[in-house]
Amino acid sequence: MFGRIAARYDLANRMLSLGSDAAWRRRLVAAVRLANPKRVMDLATGSGDTALALSGALPSDAQILGMDFCEPMLAEARKKQSAAGLGRIANVRFETGDGMALPLPDGSYDAVTISFGLRNMADRGRSLSEIRRVLRPGGRLFILEFSQPAPFVRPFYLLYLRHVLPRLAGWISGDRKAYVYLNETIESFPGRTALSAEIAAAGFSSVTAVPMTFGIVALHEAMA
């Protein structure tokens, strides 16, 4: 499914979020920059927006791995990487990997980011445990993900998700069914408190969650 929509994934994201997805990612990148990690994995990197943004925000000696299970998405990421110039090619690489069985050694990363990808994991608990395994002790997890909005926004948000988004996304991407699936995953995803509890249950500490855009999205941070 993600392979089918890869070519128009970025365009759909920008239009469906009215450009807000770029602002949300900037908040994530700013939080990661404060942690000043040297080795970062961007899991479920998709078309590479977060990984490439991190490469521009972190010191040049930082090493960034963008990992995803979908090769057509990674192909789009590599196209962006090449277009961005040699400065970004040096410290970013993209590789195929399963978020529930990461092909990486224990304690090998200072930070892991995941933007709008956790809800697509078949087993969130298993994925969170794998993330904790590859983080060094004291390493940081940053999750940017859809959440459950404030009560006064929820009726309008659900109307958009159920009726407007699939039709508009189908027109943009040519694959309405894919965005019906995405709508369903967004609507059923836990709110900030419940997701924070899942993160803690996976062994993380110092879990925080900051809502954005009336709670539609949240930035979660935690320590391994």
Note down, in words, how this protein is organized.
There is one protein chain. By secondary structure, the chain is an alpha/beta fold. It has ten helices and seven strands. It has helices at about 1-5, 10-15, 20-35, 50-55, 70-85, 85-90, 125-135, 155-175, 175-190, 190-200; strands spanning about 40-45, 65-70, 90-95, 110-115, 135-145, 205-210, 215-224. Strands 3-2-1-4-5-7-6 form a seven-stranded mixed sheet, with helices on both faces. Strand 6 and strand 7 (about 215-224) form a beta hairpin. Helix 2 runs antiparallel to helix 8 (about 155-175). The longest helix is centred in the C-terminal third of the chain and has 20 residues, at about 155-175. It starts with a helix and ends with a strand. The model has no long low-confidence stretch (mean pLDDT about 85).
Assigned CATH class: Alpha Beta
Specify Rg, calculated over alpha carbons: 17 Å
Give the second-level CATH assignment, the architecture: 3-Layer(aba) Sandwich
Report the sheet with the most strands, covering strand number, pairing sense and barrel closure.
7 strands, mixed
Structure summary, number of beta strands? 7
Structural class: alpha/beta
Structure keywords:
single chain; 224 residues; alpha/beta; Rossmann fold; 10 helices; 7 strands; globular
Write the layout of secondary structure elements.
Layout: H1 2-5, H2 9-16, H3 20-35, E1 39-43, H4 49-57, E2 63-68, H5 71-84, H6 86-89, E3 92-96, E4 109-115, H7 124-134, E5 135-146, H8 154-173, H9 176-188, H10 192-201, E6 205-212, E7 217-223
Parallel strand pairs: 1-2, 1-4, 2-3, 4-5
Antiparallel strand pairs: 5-7, 6-7
Helix pairs in contact: 2-8, 3-4, 8-9
